[in-house]
Amino acid sequence: EQLGKYFKPEGDGIQNKMFALTREEDGDVKTDKEPGHHANYNKLIGKNECIVANIRRKPGDNEAVRAYVRAGPRAQLHFNPKTVNAAIVTCGGLCPGLNNVIREITRTLYFMYGIQGKVFGIVGGYKGFYDPKTPPIVLTPENVENIHHEGGTILGSSRGGFDMEKILDFIKSNNIRQLYVIGGDGTHRGAFKIHETCMEKGLHIAVAGIPKTIDNDVDYLDRSFGFITSVEAAQTAIRAAKVEASCNLPNGVGIVKLMGRSSGFIAAHATLGSGDVDLCLVPEVPIILEGPNGCLPHLWRRVKKNGYAVVVVAEGAGEELLGESTETDASGNKKLPQIGEFMKGAINEYFKKQGEEATVKQVHLLFSFIAVKKISFPANATDTLYCMQLAQNAVHGTMAGFTGFSVGLCNNKMCLLPIPELVATSPRQMNPRGRTWERILAVTRQPNTI
Ligand code: ATP
Ligand code: MG
What we know:
Helix content is 32%, strand content 17%. By secondary structure, the protein is α/β, with parallel strands linked by helices. Helix 4 (227-247) crosses helix 5 (265-274), helix 5 (265-274) packs across helix 12 (435-444) and helix 6 packs across helix 8 (339-353). Mean pLDDT is 86; it is low at 1-19, 22-30 and 366-375.
């Protein structure tokens, strides 16, 4: 198994960052006409099928057409299902749907491709490849049968810790052929390093990423799994905040803090979905406290008109007011200032200046959901379906011999995307002059600070 024999770039331009394991030299190759190919699909994806990503055109645009490999089952398999051992790892923060993805990868490998090897579940993120305190577990269709009913990840997750040599030791000693890495930008950077190192060393391994970000901040993808579940869960918190604010006299103000480190998609969509929000604060739009465009006079007016007001705030909002934190977590991500607490103080003070008291409450839908970000919610039906598509297509991709790729929905079609492409432009942010934000201004009637 020599370098170069198994890996060669496919196509030109952007696609040359994604690699396909070559097939000719591999004696194990099966086509759909041969016994041993377990994916009996009517519709197989042709060799050069792709999905055009940037479909919008305006007169005068000369943007190059960007396209990604279409995901799905292929006529020819690179790996012989008989000899496939796989590993699955989840890293970074939690997100509804992680268990769905783990379950569907396992089931697809066993049921659709009939693999005869093992599927290892790596426990506690990248460290689990080598930490003797958290040895891997073996995943089977039986033991993953019911895991999608629970939030979180049965494998556990972590930040920090990425030892390439030790990870490769595990891969080699367990004869792993396919590695499935579920995580965010950091996790994908690690996954791509593993892929590159496998290439350099001529190891015959396919690495697939499944992008996980509750904030929906991956560019090029229609959305990320878990996002819709979170927006839906936030509705309960917003309703609770409204009840709290309307019952707590005088001048009740309810604050709901939602996820969104560098982009406010959850806060914005939850605001639009609920119709009960008077002020929505996101990282993309600067917060102005006082003056003609100030959010505090706006809240004062809303409270005077309705008796109460509801505020939704993304956790990463207001950095321009509070300053960037110098503290970082184990993976090097910077910690966020406490915008919810800050707004509570600012509202109280402003009302005092007007000669009245405010009753400000921060509402947490299940404290752990909002405040500590432990997402104990299982994925809803829409995200469950999406997780299934992501997992199945990750497996289709690796079985067909692609590596160094990630999967996602692009213009409502499943695609394989080169990992560097995916991480280069993340996190995506909402356009503060875009239509979503215009809708927010219309719904909340808050002043435009852009
Ligand atoms: P999220 O930020 O959405 O929670 P993430 O995947 O970005 O998810 P991180 O904690 O940043 O979460 O990273 C997860 C794992 O990836 C950690 O184990 C970290 O050590 C590893 N990692 C992060 N960046 C890199 C990198 N550039 N190279 C190798 N490993 C990395
Ligand atoms: Mg990250």
